[in-house]
Hints:
Blueprint: H1 23-42, H2 46-57, H3 59-73
Helix pairs in contact: 1-2
Amino acid sequence: MTTELAPAEGKDKKIxxxxxxxxxxxxxxxxxxxxxxxxxxxxxxTEEKIKGFFKGFAWPAILVYRLLEFFxxxxxxxxxx
Length: 81
């Protein structure tokens, strides 16, 4: 008596994975390229160009920091009497 193992179902099937990037990926990529053009284009030394390269990655953090600084400096509205 012989026993045959049934082939595993789905073993030969390939799984398709679809990745749909979000629009925030695109916005970040465009901002990254724009930041590189801005920072590296204004750089005059190699050191400034290297700093500009890394600042390009951190532009969202820099933007949020500057916005929070700006909002903090605003004077509170005076109460209406």
